[in-house]
């Protein structure tokens, strides 16, 4: 009889990722709903879908802002 070593547990994130709703992103960027959905649709702002709910990781919002600042600085 062969015994198998237990599978390694999935590594948890070192810090839990906060997920923002579209209204929270709207408030942080001071943009309207359609402007935020345009950013999501175009891929400029990353998101995940959980069922019918769209959620934006905080790091995705930070990356989006950083990218836009770099683009503005280069112009």
Itemize the secondary structure elements and their pairings.
Elements: E1 19-20, H1 22-29, H2 33-42, E2 48-50, E3 53-57, H3 58-74
Antiparallel strand pairs: 1-3, 2-3
Helix pairs in contact: 1-2
Write a structural description.
The protein has 75 residues and is α+β, with helices and mostly antiparallel strands. The chain has one domain (19-74). 47% of the residues lie in helices and 13% in strands. It has 3 helices and 3 strands; from the N terminus they run E-H-H-E-E-H. Helix 1 packs across helix 2 (33-42). The protein is globular.
What share of the residues does DSSP label as strand, in percent?
5-15%
The coarse silhouette is: globular
Mean pLDDT: 87
Individual helix count = 3
Q: Can you summarize the main beta sheet?
A: 3 strands, antiparallel
Structural class by secondary-structure content: alpha+beta
Poorly predicted runs are none
Using only C-alpha atoms, the radius of gyration works out to 18 Å
How are strands sequenced across the largest beta sheet? 1-3-2
Could you say how many structural domains there are in total? Answer: 1
- Strand tally, please? 3
Distance between the termini: 68 Å
Give the ordered list of helices and strands. EHHEEH
Secondary structure: helix percent? 40-55%
Task: Give a short synopsis of this structure.
The protein has helices spanning 22-29, 33-42, 58-74; strands at 19-20, 48-50, 53-57. It has 75 residues and is α+β, with helices and mostly antiparallel strands. A 3-stranded antiparallel beta sheet has the order 1-3-2.
